[in-house]
Write a structure and sequence with these properties.
alpha/beta; eight-stranded parallel sheet; eight-stranded parallel barrel; 31 helices; globular
């Protein structure tokens, strides 16, 4: 049976963990589990057969870390071919009579993508593509992308799978304690992006037991129209006699997981710490009843952190990054002044825009290159979803490809040429399209004509597999100065399309007043009328006081503003004779300081402002009074959940640019804090966490010695002794490499008893860290910085 057919009609049972079972069979600390496909095929087959025998419909190949960043192409090919052959052999040897499938397992690369890290997006796509190509050639039934903790890397892996196969693809992400991915994405944001890109099932694996993952799974069930997947750990790990054990029994694990299947989960299995016994118990708990997949009608776009839903509560789309009528922006685009463009984005975000329109269309520039660059840079410092606005299909595809999330696409229209160009891009990359009610015959003069075009667009989109929930209709506000009936036709079209066709709507509101004096007066009244007739989103100027008054008043009157809190805050600013837009514009331009540039992640501005500060202030004073306080502010906001990892890292990058200017003027008077030796332990090739820690420690003035990844205990001890380093930081992502971390700590205690050890990583918990002898568990990079500061102060 084809897997997609099976998925449609059944609850799918996945396999469980692999690493801990290999350790029981002799896998040594630091040894690559993937090489066991070649050296110990009988062990791999036995484990996989046990999963099939105990009820698994799908067993993953032993290829979690098999990619070109860890193995050369020749060895990679050998490993994947052997892994697929082993899984197929396990299937053949199993006598269980249920349906059985082999999934190509793909895990994260272990590196962070640009701009936060050093791995280019297209390089990541190519790395995943090679693994997919080899696996597909070996005859796997489906692809399982799992344990991804970065939305951008997840997109790269899914894109590689879709571009190099027609196989079903399951995608699973690993969430942190705060219910978000390491780089900040919420479950709703991941649903929006992954469902938009065509994943066959999406969900959650690793991190925690099923009880702790339940709230995240329920958010998936709230938004997802595709089957939801759950593959939790057997609870939390700790070390006993050098072995990693977990705290949830098969019976408890299966009862909780089966309960979530009863709530709608369609694909279930286990991750770290689970064994065939867990899968057997799970099968015994699950009812044979298959939950009915519910088609959700949420219209959602997303950034790399969160989703924005279109509903009765209107969405504001900032219009200021558009060169039409904006001389200064045109100059910035021609001169590649990115800081000015980024500043326009930041101002609109502060003024209340929920989405940013991005249009760089000037005839004399390379629009595909500039649009891609601007989208990329905006997403580096701003977490709002973007509306990609271009009439150039080439520019549109380039921007969609590198976009981190599910964007608004502006625009498609009723011309067949337009639909044939845009709908395939939507299908491949995901997105919600703004659909203009015009076609080959122009803009209809009647509401009936515009509604008819909307119906044609909906019908055509369906032939591409695009649901009407991913279309937002713009009924085209035309200037009333040229046609006195223009507003009436637009509003009537808007009402019918929203109320009768059941789709969402958008307008470029200010077009209505073109050619008239005091345009905001007309714009604000038209905005109010449009909202009452079903306007879902407005492309508008968030700095317009009159427009914002209408927006806040409307939300109060419609019961959309709990306790009128948003309105009261806005009214207070009006009472003080400062509109939100004016206040924001002034603070973003005239009052930009070195500290605020670092906080906002503006690298070039940070360097420029640091240079200016150094003309009147001593370097160490600039560091202590401007740079470090800014980093502390971002660090505190990160720890409180107000800023996510991308914001933290971009601020660190901006501080790095400022420090470069400091170094040019230092004459030896600057003294670093204590030395910190950091490493990812032997056998672990994932160094994302370690690299983040390095960046932050260096910006806080520590002398960091980075030994890299897959580092033997002896080398870590040798460097610690040579440098007499007071602090060592160790990182591990995989359960199989924690014994190497424990061995490293043991050797440090013997040869460098003065050194404190701080540990972190996806598999770590405070209890686990204590059980292997660490001095400190760091839940994130800022925790490490705080502990390092404590050690440094104790030495002073």
């Amino acid at each position: 049976m084809d897997f997609r057919e099976f998925l449609h009609d059944h609850i799918v049972i996945l396999d469980g963990g692999m690493g801990t079972l290999l350790q029981e069979r002799g896998l040594q600390p630091g040894e690559a589990p993937e090489r066991w496909n070649l050296s110990h095929p009988d062990d791999i087959i036995a484990i996989q057969k046990a999963y099939f025998d105990n009820g698994s419909n799908v067993v993953n190949t032993n290829t979690f870390g098999a990619n070109l960043l860890h193995f050369d192409e020749e060895e990679l090919t050998q490993i994947i071919k052997a892994a697929v052959a082993n899984a197929k052999a396990a299937r053949e040897q199993s006598k269980a009579d249920h349906e059985k499938f082999v999934a190509l397992d793909i895990g994260p690369t272990g590196r962070l993508l640009k701009p936060m890290g050093d791995l280019d997006f297209e390089e990541a796509v190519a790395v995943f593509a090679k693994t997919v190509q080899i696996g597909v050639s070996c005859g796997v039934d489906l692809i399982m992308i799992e344990t991804m903790n970065d939305s951008y890397e997840t997109k790269a892996a899914l894109l590689a799978a879709k571009e190099n196969s027609n196989l079903p693809v399951l995608v699973s992400n690993a969430y942190s304690e705060n219910g978000k991915l390491m780089t900040g994405a919420s479950p709703a944001a991941m649903v929006a992006m992954l469902e938009g890109m065509g994943a066959d099932a999406i969900g959650v694996n690793c991190s925690f037991g099923p009880d702790k993952l339940a709230p995240i799974v329920r958010e998936y069930l709230r938004y997802a129209s595709v089957p939801v997947l759950l593959k939790p750990n057997a609870g939390l790990p700790h070390s006993e006699c050098g072995c990693t054990v977990y705290d949830i029994t098969p019976e408890d694990f299966s009862a909780i997981t089966a309960g979530l299947v009863g709530e709608g989960v369609r694909v279930a299995g286990g991750c770290c710490g689970t064994t065939p016994d867990y899968i057997k118990a799970l099968c015994e708990h699950i009812s044979v009843t298959v939950p009915v997949a519910e088609q959700k009608q949420d219209t959602m776009i997303s950034s790399y952190t969160h989703a924005v839903s279109f509903s009765d509560d209107p969405v504001l789309i900032g219009e200021r990054i558009n060169p039409t009528g904006k001389k200064r922006l045109k100059e910035a685009l021609r001169n590649h002044e990115l800081d000015y463009i980024l500043g326009e984005g930041l101002k609109q975000q502060s003024a209340g825009a929920q989405v940013l329109d991005v249009n760089v269309g000037l005839p004399e520039i390379d629009e595909p290159a500039v649009l891609t660059k601007v989208v990329y840079e905006l997403q580096a410092i701003i977490d709002l979803p973007l509306q990609i606005d271009t009439s150039d299909p080439i520019a549109m595809e380039k921007a969609l490809r590198i976009y981190n999330g599910k964007p608004l696409i502006n625009s498609v229209n009723g011309k067949q040429e337009s639909m044939d160009a845009i709908f395939p891009l939507m299908k491949k990359y995901g997105g919600v399209a703004v659909a203009l009610t015009l076609d080959e015959n122009g803009i209809p003069e009647t509401a009936e004509g515009r509604v008819a075009i909307a119906e044609k667009i909906i019908d055509t989109a369906a032939t591409y597999g695009i649901d009407k929930k991913d279309l937002i209709f713009d009924t085209l506000a035309m200037a009333v100065s040229a046609d006195k009936n223009a507003a009436k036709v637009t509003l009537e079209s808007l009402r019918v399309i929203r109320r009768e066709l059941g789709v969402h709507t958008s307008l470029g509101v200010s077009n209505i007043s073109f050619g008239l004096p005091q345009r905001d007066i007309v714009n604000a009244s038209f905005f109010a009328l449009a909202l009452e007739n079903g306007l879902s989103a407005a492309i508008m100027n968030p700095f317009s006081a009159e427009m914002m008054k209408t927006f806040y008043a409307y939300r109060v009157l419609k019961g959309l503003d709990d306790n009128c809190s948003d309105y009261i805050e806005f009214a207070d600013s009006v009472q003080n004779n400062i509109t939100i837009g004016q206040k924001t514009a002034r603070s973003a331009d005239d009052e930009l300081t070195l500290s605020s540039a670092i906080i906002k992640g503006l690298k070039d501005q940070a360097a420029k402002l640091c240079t200016e500060a150094l003309q009147t202030t001593e370097p160490l004073t600039v560091v202590s009074e401007h740079i470090i306080p800014a980093l502390d502010k971002v660090g505190q906001d990160y720890e409180k959940g107000r800023v996510y990892l991308p914001g933290l890292l971009m601020s660190a990058e901006a501080a790095k640019y400022a420090f470069e200017e400091i170094k040019k003027r230092m004459t030896g008077g600057g003294k670093n804090k204590c030395t910190v030796v950091i490493a990812t332990v032997k056998g672990d090739i994932h160094d994302i966490g370690k690299n983040i820690v390095k960046l932050l420690l260096e910006n806080y003035g520590f002398d960091v010695v980075d030994l890299g990844k897959d580092v033997a205990p002896e080398l870590i001890v040798e460097e610690t002794v040579r440098l007499h380093a007071p602090l060592v930081g160790l990182s591990a992502l995989m359960t199989t490499t924690v014994p190497a971390m424990e061995e490293t700590i043991k050797q440090l205690r013997e040869s460098a008893p003065w050194a404190k050890v701080v540990v972190g990583g996806a598999v770590m918990t405070e209890e686990y860290a204590n059980s292997i002898g660490a001095d400190q568990y760091a839940k994130d990079a800022m925790d490490t910085v705080r502990y390092a500061d404590k050690i440094n102060q104790e030495m002073s």
